[in-house]
Specification:
The chain is of the alpha/beta class. It has one domain: Alpha-Beta Barrel (TIM Barrel), CATH 3.20.20.70. Helix content is about 35%, strand content about 20%. The protein is built from ten helices and ten strands. The chain has an eight-stranded mixed sheet. A two-stranded antiparallel ribbon has the order 2-3. Helix 2 packs parallel to helix 4, helix 7 packs parallel to helix 9 and helix 9 packs antiparallel against helix 10. The longest helix is centred in the N-terminal third of the chain and has 14 residues. The protein is globular and about 55 Å long. The model has no long low-confidence stretch (mean pLDDT about 95). It binds iron/sulfur cluster. Iron/sulfur cluster binds next to loops.
Length: about 280
């Protein structure tokens, strides 16, 4: 692994080969995030990436690019990177990566289609919420309309993506409203899955400072459960979509495919509250 201090990857990629692409976060301004706060952003030089690949296992089938948002390297470099992966790992059928709405907006539909053909087959994107006021509060750097536009572009380019959302992020008294707005946003595009995270407040973040100043009050556990149920009730995908709350931060861990498992998942949450 490249000499990076912090490497984060989704739990679904626990057994995937990691390939260093970027270090840290090129944005680093989300109010709730402390992941790369002390890390200077940089791109991993191509000779270093090539060295990793040369020593990689030729029959590797999947690769995860490390860094908060490797798509921020732009089209030309991403194309070069994918070609390099194909050269050294000819059996790799899927290159996965974190991405942001901001970075995807820099790619045209045609460019994304080319990257898809070169092996870019899965993105994990932090949508967080479907409310503009909350996106602004957390300084996410995109709006709901921008999120919808970029998500639809990915659908058109046939690049599957997982939409990560955070429940509890709208604060006390706002959970149900946030869930309805978030479901409404997601219903306008077709993610491969919705991955939920439960709001966790880290010391030193802007969100933590907001709480200290009394500017933000996190919702109770009960309210957060209502938020998950409301989200499930309002999600109406027209293509099969995984609903996944198994990330360690979640209060209740369930997983299923919508729309088929909707009632089962809601019943499962309700039965655990009563139990
Ligand atoms: S949430 Fe993602 S984009 Fe925002 S600061 Fe953290 S790593 Fe960067």
């Amino acid at each position: 692994m490249y000499k990076s201090a912090n490497v984060f990857y989704p739990q679904d990629e626990m057994t995937t080969a990691l390939l260093p692409a970027t270090i840290g976060c090129s944005y680093n301004k989300c109010a709730f995030c402390s992941m790369y706060k002390d890390e200077k952003y940089c791109e991993v030089p191509f000779p270093d990436i090539e060295m990793e690949l040369k020593h990689g296992f030729k029959y590797t089938e999947k690769v995860f690019l490390t860094g908060a948002d490797p798509m921020s390297i732009g089209y030309d470099k991403m194309k070069r990177l994918l070609k390099m992966i194909r050269k050294y790992l000819p059996y790799c059928a899927c290159v996965a990566s974190y991405a942001s709405i901001r970075s995807i907006s820099k790619f045209s539909l045609e460019e994304l289609s080319i990257l898809h053909n070169l092996g870019l087959r899965l993105l994990y994107i932090g949508f967080e919420t479907g409310r503009d006021d909350i996106l602004k509060l957390i300084n996410k750097g995109h709006t709901v309309n921008e999120a919808i536009e970029q998500a639809r572009k990915l659908n058109e380019a046939k690049i599957p993506f997982n939409a990560i959302i955070i429940y509890g992020i709208a604060g006390k008294g706002q959970s149900a409203d946030n869930a309805v707005a978030t479901a409404k946003m997601i219903n306008t595009f077709a993610p491969r899955s919705v991955i939920t995270m439960n709001l966790t407040v880290f010391t030193g973040t802007e969100l933590h400072k907001m709480i200290e100043r009394g500017y933000f009050i996190p919702p109770s556990g009960g309210e957060r459960i209502v938020e998950i149920i409301t989200l499930l009730e309002n999600l109406e995908p027209n293509r099969a979509m995984i609903f996944d709350t198994t990330h360690p931060t979640n209060i209740i861990k369930i997983k299923g495919t919508l729309p088929y498992d909707k009632e089962r998942l809601i019943d499962e949450i309700r039965s655990r509250i009563i139990a």
